[in-house]
Amino acid sequence: MAFNFGAPSGTSGTAGATAAPAGGFGGFGTTSTTAGSAFSFSAPANTGTTGLFGGTQNKGFGFGTGFGTTTGTSTGLGTGLGTGLGFGGFSTQQQQQTTLGGLFSQPTQAPTQSNQLINTASALSAPTLLGDERDAILAKWNQLQAFWGTGKGYFNNNIPPVEFTQENPFCRFKAVGYSCMPNNKDEDGLVVLVFNKKETDIRSQQQQLVESLHKVLGGNQTLTVNVEGIKTLPDDQTEVVIYIIERSPNGTSRRVPATTLYAHFEQTNIKTQLQQLGVTLSMTRTELSPAQIKQLLQNPPAGVDPIIWEQAKVDNPDSEKLIPVPMVGFKELLRRLKVQDQMTKQHQTRLDIISEDISELQKNQTTTMAKIAQYKRKLMDLSHRTLQVLIKQEIQRKSGYAIQADEEQLRVQLDTIQCELNAPTQFKGRLNELMSQIRMQNHFGAVRSEERYYIDADLLREIKQHLKQQQEGLSHLISIIKDDLEDIKLVEHGLNETIHIRGGVFS
Predict the structure, then answer these.
(1) Maximum CA extent, the chain
(2) What does pTM read for this prediction?
(3) Contact 205, 214 (CB under 8 A)
(4) More confidently predicted of 92 and 464
């Protein structure tokens, strides 16, 4: 995305001042001067209240500690959006008017802002500090500092240098993210306190914390401090959500509104006591009205191009639940990354807990199914035993009596069933046939299940070749042994003849 500052009416010696690419930052009005650098800056013809981006520029809007710097003294809406924990600032009527006046109204020091813009344009476009070609190099250096968002821009010997911060409109390290909007009402009374302590320390000292907050509230016996939730934040910080229950003498109770409780915490003496407890930030967690959301979206934050802001509103994945917030500088990006990692760890921890619960339920289900099967067997066994007892009891009760007609009829039916079962072509024969088939299948299965070894064709060929070589070696060895035996026979025959000859001579 290219930057173009101004639309010069005269000719310029650079290519960067002749066209303004789409998506770039707006200009400072029409100019009639020329510049020797790649960026064209000059004093705007209108020195009224129009800011860098016309009437939409609003230096009073800020997002607190997280997203930009709030120029007012209120820690309301800006602080809530800065931490991503909730929206505060619309507490009491007086505070709401003050906050809205400081955040969304037109700046009261328009001439000062106009002079600041003129000085910034001069430092970036046409510095006159040295009066030679080195001023062009100084302009490029000032542009680099403005893009980076740090340093001082010298442009005139008689005017102090311009201080470049990350909130300046030319800083490149900016982006727009999205934060969830709270859906709690003011009647819920939820107030967020951010402690500069670890979650383990807060949980171990939760009771002492509740008692300390009760003392901060004046120790009124009609008030009860309740903890809604505790959540870990990056950098060893902890978020604690509280609400206050107020009991009336007639026995009824109600929650103290969040705006009332927040206004009490914002008092100087109360805030000092909270800081002694380790509280670094307090805010209400209440939803914004449609009018407040509309006013917030219509005014881009300080240093953010309206075009980028409008595109962020268009790209909002869920405009009903999310609101765009600016991210200025690497620190803010790192903070959001830490928050995301923290939430990912919490989600993973919750998933691990759910997985453990599911595993435990599966074990319990398996145990329960085994117990059900065991109880079924016991029930069947008890049913058979009960039936046997009933049979014996009935036999003893009917002993000495003649067989009755219904008993005779039942005996005939049982005999008929027994005959049908024992018939070769009926159930018993079929059952015997099925049993024989099952035995045969089991036998064939056992035979088929025997292990068989297969040898690769190449390996089999190598084994045959090796055995053939062994066979040839054995044949050669046998032929050598035969030749040696023949030689031994010849030697033996020669020795025998020599012995006979010598015997005839001596005789």
Answers:
(1) 163
(2) 0.47
(3) no
(4) 464
